[in-house]
Structures are given as C-alpha cells and as structure tokens.
Amino acid sequence: KAGGSDKLKEIKEELYRYYDLVKASGVVEFERSISTFQNWQKQIMNSFAFDLHNGYVEGINNQTKVIKRNAFGFKRFDRFRLKVLLHHQYKNLRVRIN
C-alpha cells in the first residue's frame, strides 16, 4: 500500500518529526496525545503497510443495528434473525416460515 520499505521509513520519520513538533509546542493536551500515538505506533504503521480494513464487517454490523432499531423489538428472536439474514441476502436459511 505505502510503496515499499523506503516509503514506510519516510512515514516513520515524519511521525517522529510530529512527536518533536508537539513536544516543542508546549500544549499539554497534545503532549498527552503523543503517548497514545506511541502506544499505537505499530498499528499505525501497519495501516500504511497493509491494505486491510474491517469496513465491510462494520457495514454489516451497522445495517443489522438499523434493522434492530426499526424493528421496535421483535418478540421472537428467530424472526429477528430471519429478517437480518434476509436483509443480508443469505439464501440458505433452512427455516420454514408458516
């Protein structure tokens, strides 16, 4: 994604430059944010190195929550489950609806 190890090295150097700028600014809130960046630095660098994300799964979760919110509380869980599965276009339900 980032274009090789040279690009990752450049991104890491920019991140360290950002740390230095924040420390030089003297803003306490920004200085506290640096520790968060440092704690998550490996994950931040991985986000530049790999083109992986969980957007698809987050979309499914969001749609399921919208169905739940619009359902105003199904009395039977199996009906709610069917509604969610039908919405996400699962064809092999193996459940008989009377």
Automatic annotation (TrEMBL):
Residues 9-84 form the Transposase IS204/IS1001/IS1096/IS1165 DDE domain. It comes from the Bacteria. Pfam families: DDE_Tnp_ISL3 (PF01610). Signal peptide: none annotated. Transmembrane segments: none annotated. This is Transposase. It comes from Piscibacillus halophilus. The lineage of its organism: Bacteria, Bacillati, Bacillota, Bacilli, Bacillales.
